[in-house]
């Protein structure tokens, strides 16, 4: 999937008005894009069920039906209630004039279509659907056929990813003009399926300023000269690994090596590890009461850190260093209870990256819990980034990478294969490695999130499913994914 902009709903409405003012018939363009998608993905003359709602999304579906009938597809058209918008009424009149039969009810007993085209509701849905609509959507979901949603699955809030009582569970979503974050995050990731963007030939000059984009960070700055040495690619110190949690620090250190850092120090609070047999390249420097942290270009604090007094002192020492800093796990939990340390993070001039999962984000924002974050992820990620003057990676389906100025990226790589202990530590080490190689904090965090997801995608493709990817087995896949991106593969 190519990248693309994300507009707020208000900005998207302004774009639609500007396009109309320039004589661009977006409904016809959307219908043609949908028809072209069907032509690419469905066998010729395969039977289609086109579901049209009362608004402009329904108009898109009706115009698509007209185009697809001309291409030889037998059609069943369902429009449960009369059109409510002028554009949809005009589309219905054209469909009827062309001799298309439009049903008000879905008859039982008919064979399922090859493809259901969902144009019941678009992105303007702002309230839960009534019982009749929920019942219809549940019946449509039970049909044994592929499902294509136009713009967004009906019943889904395209910006929060939350279903409004019920939503079409699409296999594919063809979204229009810009990407919408709710198609990638939270429940929306499962309802939207594979997402493609159709920009409908809308001139770039009409687009208002985007609030975000799909995660496609640049990689060219990581290309390597033959004339280089380990010092060319920076050094990372990983601070963590309290007794009983040493593995977390080891995973972060190994990941920093796999991500290309020239040198990696491991500073465990558990001083019983003289060397990592699996990665003897890691330089182990126990972080005891007297030891200073090693001089390094980037510090990664938190994997297996614990919350004891020594952990707090090491975190305070790391915040004071004028180098890029990655904070994860217990470092974030300490910030949530030590507001003085959080204030120091917000005052830092060197780049800072925070990598909370939803529960950690809720603690940092003093909210009720992860459910509150998950209900509307984008505003909370942006609020946390602004409040702590940091780049924030809000992990989860459709991980968000937000800058302090509010601009954000939505990640679309990876899936449930990464939902296993230790993968957060892997991500922390990878972000630190990319920072050490000179990427700015936003691009380093974005690229690390994308690479981590691509490693998961590779595993899922190779193993015919998502189960069984251990965090320790992820590192070689990170290196392969990064090298492929650099080679343009």
Query: Mean of residue pLDDT?
Result: 95
Strand content: 5-15%
Give the number of DSSP strands.
Answer: 18
Tally the helices: what do you get? 16
Give the radius of gyration: 25 Å
Helix and strand composition category = alpha/beta
Summarize the biggest pleated sheet: 11 strands, mixed
Helix content: 25-40%
State the distance separating the first and last CA atoms.
14 Å
Low-confidence stretches: none
Q: Based on CA inertia axes, which overall geometry fits?
A: elongated
- Numbering strands along the chain, what is their spatial order in the largest sheet? 1-9-18-17-16-15-14-13-10-11-12
Question: Can you tell me about this structure?
Answer:
This protein has 16 helices and 18 strands. By secondary structure, it is of the alpha/beta class. It has an 11-stranded mixed β-sheet, sandwiched between helices. Strands 4-3-2-5-6-7-8 form a 7-stranded parallel β-sheet, with helices on one face. Helix 2 packs across helix 3 and helix 7 packs across helix 14.
List keywords for this structure.
alpha/beta, 11-stranded mixed β-sheet, 7-stranded parallel β-sheet, 16 helices, 14% strand
């Amino acid at each position: 999937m190519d990248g693309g902009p994300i507009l707020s709903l208000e900005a998207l409405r302004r774009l639609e008005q500007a396009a109309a003012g320039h004589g661009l018939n977006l409904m016809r363009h959307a219908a043609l894009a949908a028809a072209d998608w069907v032509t690419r993905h469905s066998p010729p003359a395969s039977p289609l069920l086109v579901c049209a709602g009362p608004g402009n999304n329904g108009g898109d579906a009706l115009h698509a039906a007209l185009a697809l009938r001309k291409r030889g597809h037998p059609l069943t058209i369902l429009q449960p209630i009369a059109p409510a918008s002028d554009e949809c009424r005009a589309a219905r009149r054209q469909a009827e004039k062309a001799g298309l039969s439009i049903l008000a009810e879905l008859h039982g007993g008919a064979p399922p279509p090859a493809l259901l085209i969902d144009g019941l509701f678009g992105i303007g849905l702002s309230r839960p659907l009534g019982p009749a609509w929920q019942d219809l959507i549940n019946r449509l979901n039970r049909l044994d056929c592929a499902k294509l949603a136009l713009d967004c699955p009906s019943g889904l809030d395209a910006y929060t990813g939350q279903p409004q009582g019920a939503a079409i569970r699409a296999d594919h979503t063809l979204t229009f003009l810009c990407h919408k974050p709710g198609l990638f995050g939270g429940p929306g990731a499962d309802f939207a399926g594979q997402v493609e963007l159709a920009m409908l030939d809308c001139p770039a000059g009409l687009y208002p300023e985007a609030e975000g984009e799909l995660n496609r960070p640049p990689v060219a700055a990581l290309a390597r000269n033959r004339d280089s040495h380990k010092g060319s690619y920076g050094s990372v110190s990983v601070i963590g690994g309290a007794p009983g949690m040493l593995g977390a620090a080891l995973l972060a250190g190994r990941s920093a090596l796999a991500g290309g850092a020239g040198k990696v120090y491991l500073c465990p609070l558990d001083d019983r590890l003289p060397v990592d047999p699996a990665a003897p390249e890691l330089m182990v420097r126990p972080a005891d009461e007297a030891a200073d942290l090693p001089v390094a270009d980037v510090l990664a604090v938190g994997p297996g850190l614990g919350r004891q007094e020594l952990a707090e002192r090491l975190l305070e020492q790391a915040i004071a260093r004028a180098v890029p800093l990655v904070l994860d796990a217990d470092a974030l939990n300490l910030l949530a209870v030590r507001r003085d340390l959080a204030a120091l993070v917000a005052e830092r001039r060197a780049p800072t990256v925070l990598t909370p999962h939803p529960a950690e984000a809720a603690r940092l924002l003093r909210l009720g819990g992860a459910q509150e974050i998950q209900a509307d992820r984008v505003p909370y990620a942006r609020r946390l980034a602004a409040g702590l003057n940091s780049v924030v990676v809000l992990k989860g389906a459709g991980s968000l990478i937000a800058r302090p100025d509010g601009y954000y990226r939505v990640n679309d790589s990876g899936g449930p294969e990464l939902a296993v202990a230790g993968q957060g530590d892997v991500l922390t080490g990878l972000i630190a490695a990319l920072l050490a190689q000179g990427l700015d904090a936003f691009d380093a965090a974005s690229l690390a999130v994308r690479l981590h997801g691509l490693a998961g995608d590779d595993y899922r493709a190779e193993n015919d499913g998502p189960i069984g990817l251990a965090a320790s087995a992820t590192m070689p896949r990170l290196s392969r994914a990064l090298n492929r991106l650099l080679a343009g593969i």
